Amino acid sequence: MTNSNYKLTKEDFKQINKRSLFTFQLGWNYERMQGSGYLYMLLPQLRKMYGDGTPELKEMMKVHTQFFNTSPFFHTIIAGFDLALEEKEGVNSKDAVNGIKTGLMGPFAPIGDSIFGSLVPAIMGTIAATMAAAGSPIGILMWIAVAVVYDIFRWKQLEFAYKEGVNLVTNMRSTLTALVDAASVLGIFMVGGLIATMINFEVSWAPTIGDKVIDIQDMLNTIFPRLVPAIFTGFIFWLLGKKGMNSTKAIVLIIVLALAFSAFGHFFFGMP
Fold it and tell me: Is 200 helix (H, G, I), strand (E, B) or coil?
């Protein structure tokens, strides 16, 4: 259950935004990436909603320490939807929160990084550098102005997303359900796309029968393209469900398997 007497205030949004700007990436790690940063960003508000030390707080803290990774320029949009759901429904919103986070973090990552992390800096950086090289101080001022606009954009989107989330929860429940379902499906598609494009695991073994060389990988591709990466990914997911196994151990195991299989010459591991 949630603390129905508590509603988020302007001070709450300020605190979340400060943590978003200055601490969100500090807890980044290869196992859960931005998961700990996401929890730290919202923790004071979660304590106000659920009460400090309550079972509900502990349950939602576990939810928010799961894997999370998206563009730093859009993550507070997801946080705004999340807070609106939790403020209204408490721990009952756990599945919806998971669906929103999983479904939106994938699409937001390439959009935010490509536009705000690459495109705009490349264009504005070139203009600013050219002007600075010509002796104009306006170049550096332009670059500072772009950084300020970035931060304003990130600061404003949290409360906007929260208000839209409240509207979805209170007045558009059917729309919210459809959004959560769509986000979950989109998240599954994103995982499938990442497996097909980012995991390069092929069978290089080509046995010879008489005068004919059998290309095992080519045969597999005619049956199901990228089948081997899918099977390998399924094996890793199964492995992570075993007691005592974590992502770090799985990464070490992948490295050992890559070296071993490559040494035998039957499999190929590499970048796509």
Answer: strand
